[in-house]
Specification:
Elements lengths: L8 E4 L5 H12 L3 E6 L18 E5 L5 H15 L4 E4 L14 H29 L2 E6 L12 H21 L4 E8 L5 H9 L3 H11 L8 H12 L10 E4 L9 H21 L1
Parallel strand pairs: 1-2, 1-4, 2-3, 4-5, 5-6, 6-7
Helix pairs in contact: 1-7, 2-3, 3-4, 6-8
Enzyme class: oxidoreductase
Pfam family, one: adh_short_C2
Protein name: Dihydroanticapsin 7-dehydrogenase
């Protein structure tokens, strides 16, 4: 299956790392012109990886929670590139607390980036797609938006909002020939994943746990999510809209009961080992 995006203008938020970075690469390899954003200043990023795509990519520092910044960015895309054909709302953050221990600012920030960011970007790029006669929007949700996790109060809420917003947008904008879908990964091996899990218990123990929980014995790679995004954006998915595509190595296919007991044993053994070393 040869997927091509020649002549298409693709916007990717959160495109400087992880899933976004892998997706930018895939779109470029498929002939698209890609404008991607991140919170990093341009001089903090390495663009040599895109040296074979001169004139086909652009980067803008953008805070997706700032409505005026998003509005100006959308205007820039409209004026320079004559509108957007594909929008990948990928920018997001993660937080883990139970509700009464969730700091208010953490709750608000998680909602702001993960939900309001999708709202602002979609709000200002949808008119361009309507004017062009169609387009595709893909949001990054999560299996954490379809099911609950222990201690992930704000993240579950935010990603659940994205999952249902995706359905709503698919209904409202089908009349304009705009398809809207979401990808719903399990854990993805990104820098955000590594930093977060290092902060809450250590990479080693989490990797052991994930090898038990995931039937495919590992977490998702960014490239695997990127492949799904590119498919959903393509004409090969022309009759697919309103879905949350689960990409989780079979994690949500089982109840987890047996694996949870095995994970508890591993954690206990790990903690005993750590206690002896201290």
């Amino acid at each position: 299956m040869d997927i091509r995006f020649d002549g298409k203008i693709i916007v990717v938020s959160g495109g400087s790392t992880g899933i976004g970075e892998a997706t930018v690469k895939n779109f470029l390899e498929s002939g698209g012109t890609v404008i991607f954003t991140g919170i990093e200043k341009p001089d903090c990023l390495d663009f040599t990886k895109y040296q074979n795509y001169q004139g086909k990519y652009d980067y803008k520092q953008l805070e997706v929670t700032n409505e005026e910044e998003v509005k100006s960015f959308a205007l820039y895309i409209n004026e320079k590139y004559h509108g957007c054909d594909v929008l990948f709302n990928n920018a997001g953050i993660i937080d883990a607390h139970i509700l009464h221990e969730t700091p208010t600012q953490e709750w608000l920030r998680t909602m702001d980036v993960n939900v309001n960011g999708v709202y602002y970007m979609s709000k200002y790029f949808l008119p361009q797609m309507i004017k062009k006669g169609g387009g595709v929007i893909i949001n990054t949700s999560s299996i954490s938006g379809l099911q609950g996790d222990y201690t992930f109060c704000s993240y579950n809420t935010a990603k659940g909002a994205v999952a249902n917003l995706t359905r709503n947008m698919a209904l409202d904008y089908a009349q304009y020939n705009i398809r809207v879908n979401a990808v719903a990964p399990g854990s993805v091996r990104t820098s955000m994943y590594s930093k977060f899990f290092d902060s809450v218990g250590g990479q080693e123990i989490l990797d052991l746990g994930h090898s038990l929980q995931y039937p495919l014995k590992r977490v998702t790679l960014p490239e695997e999510v990127a492949n799904a995004v590119v498919f959903l954006a393509s004409e090969q998915a022309s009759f697919i809209t309103g879905i949350n595509l689960v990409i989780d190595g079979g994690l949500t296919a089982h109840t987890g009961a047996q694996h949870n007991w095995e994970l508890v044993k591993i954690i206990r053994d790990y903690n005993k080992k750590e206690a002896k070393q201290k």
